[in-house]
Amino acid sequence: MDDVVLVINSGGRRDAEWLDAVTGExxxxxxxxxxxxxxRVTKAAADGQKSGAVxxxxxxLVSSGAIGAVVWSIRDVSLKFLExxxxxxxxxxxxxxxxxxxxxxxxxxxxxxxxFGDLLADx
Length: 123
Fold this sequence. Notes:
Elements: E1 2-9, H1 16-31, E2 37-44, E3 53-64, H2 71-85, E4 89-94, E5 97-102, H3 106-121
Antiparallel strand pairs: 1-3, 1-4, 2-3, 4-5
């Protein structure tokens, strides 16, 4: 089973309550991809705390028998999530390797649309 961790970066502009809510939204979105198991990331609680585990806000554990087969779906869901929530990025980690999907800024989108228009005008 392949496991990766997705970490949502709000850019520090949002509070923990917002981050917790959008983490739940992304968990729901990713759970709709067939073959994926999605859960919140937890870590051992510090001494003196009531619970034995503490949820890591903004982090999801994504598991699949063949995660490579659904990588494009994860990318598409992540991009739609970033646009909808205005979070800055999602970092996907596997061991010590990671890749970050960044929400494109308006200037990037406008530039892409302009280039697309130029491409069509050349026909």
